[in-house]
Amino acid sequence: MRRAVPALVLIAAxxxxxxxxxxxxxxxxxxxxxxxKAHAVSLNLEQIAERAIATLVPSEKDTSVVYLDSAEIQAGxxxxxxxxxxxxxxxxxxxxxxxxxxxxxxxxxRYLLVSRRTGNVRSFDASFPxxxxxxxxxxxxxxxxxRVPDWAVAVR
Length: 156
Prior knowledge:
The protein is an alpha+beta fold. It has helices at residues 9-12, 45-54, 58-61; strands at 65-69, 78-81, 84-87, 92-98, 109-115, 121-126, 139-144. A hairpin with a 2-residue loop joins β2 and β3.
């Protein structure tokens, strides 16, 4: 049986790394030896990508592409999701999920805001991608389903 291979090597390294379950609400509580709560640890881009990929339901895994923008968004900033603007509820990264990469725009897609601190995800349905006028230099593919042709991926 063939398995989907993530497009970025950084995702492959996370499979056996013992990272937190992507569906939990964030990194485990960390305490120092005095029993006092330590400062919260931010998620790295690998963990953010895992959270975005974890939003795919089984029927979407083989046919979707997930992109992650490595530019951090500050809490309160306006974020363009398709043709609408939303306010980032926390410091976050934006992921874009193309649910039908082999067809012309507009079609089903969604934007995800992933909290840098907790890994919480807010999802926004949309019909248009962030790259109609050209992709951001910070946008990268973090997941490509097995049934997605190479020509359908917007960013190399």
